[in-house]
Amino acid sequence: MIRTTKRFNRAIEKLYAAFHDGTLNPECCRQCAVGNICDNTDTWKHLTTAHGSAELSYLGYLNESFGRKIYGFKPSELLKIETEFLKACGYSIPFKKSTGPKKLTKDHLFDGLVAAVGALCEIEKIPSVMDCGILFDYSKTGQTTHLSESRIDKFEMVSG
Asked: Distance between CA atoms of 13 and 138, rounded to whole angstroms?
């Protein structure tokens, strides 16, 4: 069973809602992946040198150094989530509107959502909840995973 944290569950719930409500927008720092995680505020953008950059600004560095967390995440973790989201949506990093898709589609947003969730899983050090290989007892190498527990039970979320 995968144990998840409150911050992970809150982030997933916010991203899910934004995707389905049509309020997930990589071109807006209040509606992008991290903007949604941060309750549609743009204060997180001061933690980086540029939207989509993984480089901390001086303010981001100070917050990170003092152990400050924003919505449960270190500044560098938020930047990782946003960077992965933007890249998967088809944008160059750092973000430039002109380097993204000509017409942003729901498919682009879904790809970005999957990447953001993958980054969240990596930060939490848990298997990707978006990987259905576990469910089907299959890995991309073609070898079966031979799990001892029920594969369905692996997807039960428990706050920890």
From this structure: 27
Q: Is 0.90 surpassed by the pTM of this model?
A: no
| Residue 151: per-residue pLDDT | 43
Q: Pick the closest to residue 35 from 18, 48, 49 (CA basis).
A: 18
Q: How many domains does the chain have?
A: 1
For the record, the structure tokens of 123 come out as 């930060």
Residue-range definition of the domain harbouring residue 120 = 3-159
Measured CA to CA, the distance from residue 46 to residue 35 in angstroms comes to: 12
Cis preceding-peptide flag for 94 (omega within 30 of 0): yes
25 close to 32: Cβ distance less than 8 angstroms: yes
Which residues contact residue 99 at a Cβ distance below 8 angstroms, ignoring those fewer than 6 apart? 91, 92
Asked if residue 144 has pLDDT above 70, the reply is no
Query: Given 3-state DSSP classes, what are the helix, strand and coil percentages for the chain, each rounded to the nearest 5?
Result: 45, 5, 50
State the chain's mean pLDDT as an integer.
Answer: 85
Q: Residue 20's Cα: distance from chain center in Å? A: 16
Residue 14's pLDDT is: 97
State residue 78 phi and psi, 5-degree precision: -60, -40
